[in-house]
Specification:
It is a single chain. The protein has one domain. By secondary structure, it is mainly alpha-helical. It contains 3 helices and no strands.
């Protein structure tokens, strides 16, 4: 009878392991869906939107553009 009990315990352990794996897979799918949803539509949500939306970019002024052009063409001295 002891052998039969150990067999039942083994089956129950396998069932428990399967349940844990299935629940883990479900949680991973839900987490991925939430992540994708936030990446696509996060900026439209009222509370989370400002976090994902960021700040409005200011237009680049002529001075900044001129300075960048100067950096792209460095002067060579010999």
């Amino acid at each position: 009878m002891d052998d039969n009990r150990s067999g039942d315990d083994g089956r129950e352990q396998r069932r428990t392991n399967r349940k844990v794996l299935v629940l883990t897979a479900i949680v991973m799918v839900i987490a991925a869906a939430v992540g994708i949803g936030l990446a696509r539509y996060g900026s439209e949500l009222p509370i989370i939107g400002p976090i994902f939306g960021g700040s409005d970019a200011m237009p680049t002024s002529e001075v900044v553009v001129r300075e960048i052009r100067d950096l792209e063409n460095p002067a060579t001295t010999r």
